Amino acid sequence: MIGNIRAVSQQLSNPVFNTPKQLVSWMGAIQAQDYTMSKWAVGIRLQSATLRDVEKSLQQGEIVRTHIMRPTWHLVPAEDLRWMLQLSSDRMRGAVTIYEKNRGINIDLHVKTNSLLEKILEGNNHLNRQEIQEALNRNGLSIDPEWMNCILMRAEIDGIVCSGIDRGKKQTYALLEERIPFSRKLTRDEALVQLARRYFQSHSPASVPDFSWWSGLSLTEARQAIHSISPELIKDRFSGQNLFVHESCNSTMETDEDLYFLPAFDEYLISYKDRTDVLELRHQPRAFTSNGIFHPILLYQGKVIGNWKKVPKKNRITVETAFFEGISGINEELLNRAEEKYQRFLAL
C-alpha cells in the first residue's frame, strides 16, 4: 500500500508531467550524486522524454545541479535555488566546517577563492573543475584536487556558483548571478511552507523523520514546516507508524503492475529515513552500502526486488538484471517493457 501510493506521488506510476522543469518543480529536488543516473531519474518520471530533453533543460538552466539541503548534489528548479539556499546555507556551512578544518581549509581561503571565482567566471565564462583549478593556481594559490572539492562546494553553498553548460562530457560551473534570473525572495516561514509542500506532494506517505532527513531540517523545524501545511495533509497509520499523505494524492489508486528500472540514488529509496516498508532489511545491503552508495534497483508493486545495470555492447546498450533471493515469478514481458522505456530514453 505505501509503495503504491509513493509510486504515484513520485510520478513513476501514471506520470502527469511532460517537461523536466515541471517534474523537478513537483519533486522539490532530485538527488544527483551520479549525474548520468539523475537524468534518468527525471526521464523515468515523465510521460515521454529522451536524454536529449533532460540535457536541454540543464543546458538552458531551467534546472541546475548543485549542493543543497544536506548538503549533497541535487537537481533543483532554477527559480527555487535562491530561497532553498537561504533556508539551508547556514546549516550546510556548519555541516562541512569540521571536514574543512581537518584539511587545513579556513574561512579566509573561502573569502579569497570566492572573490577569484567571481572574476574568473564573470561574463558567462563557464569553466570545468580542472580549468578553475588552473585559474586559481595562476592567481597565486596552490590548490590540490581535494581542496577543490571543498572550495567549489562552499562556493555553491554561498550562492556564488552553480552548474553551467556542459561541454562534451565535462560539467562546468557558472556564476549563479549570471546563470539564474532573480526571483522573489521568500521569508523563512514561506520557504518552510514551500519545502514541506513540495516534499509531501511528491513523497507521500512520509513521516516527520523522513522529511527531516530529506530536507536536512532539524526535527523541530520539520514539525514546524509540517504544521504550516497541516490543512493539506492527512495523518494516518501505515504499518504501525504515523505517516502524512498530501491531499493531492489519489486515494483510489489500483496496484501498480509495472516494473521499473530505478537509477542509483533514486528518490524512491534515498529520500526516506525508514526504508523497510519498500525494502526488506535483509536485502538492504544489495540496494545501498553502509557508506551511502545507492545502487540501481528494480521496483515492482511498490517493493524493491533486485538490481539492474547497463551493459554497453557494440552500437547499443543492454540491461542485465539480478533479483534478490526469494524473488521469482516476474513476467518477462514486464522486464522487456521496462528495458524498452530505458532504451527509448537513451534514444538508441
* Gyration radius, rounded: 21 Å
Order of helices and strands: HHEHHEEHHEHHEEHHHHEEEHHEEEH
Overall pLDDT score: 93
Largest sheet: 4 strands, antiparallel
What structural category arises from helix and sheet content?
A: alpha+beta
Spans of at least 5 consecutive residues whose pLDDT stays below 50 are none
Helical content (DSSP H or I, runs of 4+): 40-55%
Task: Note the topology.
Blueprint: H1 2-9, H2 20-27, E1 30-31, H3 35-43, H4 51-59, E2 63-68, E3 72-77, H5 81-101, H6 107-120, E4 127-128, H7 129-138, H8 145-157, E5 161-163, E6 172-175, H9 176-179, H10 188-203, H11 208-215, H12 219-228, E7 233-238, E8 241-246, E9 259-262, H13 267-270, H14 284-287, E10 297-300, E11 303-313, E12 316-323, H15 332-346
Antiparallel strand pairs: 1-3, 2-3, 4-6, 5-6, 7-8, 9-10, 10-11, 11-12
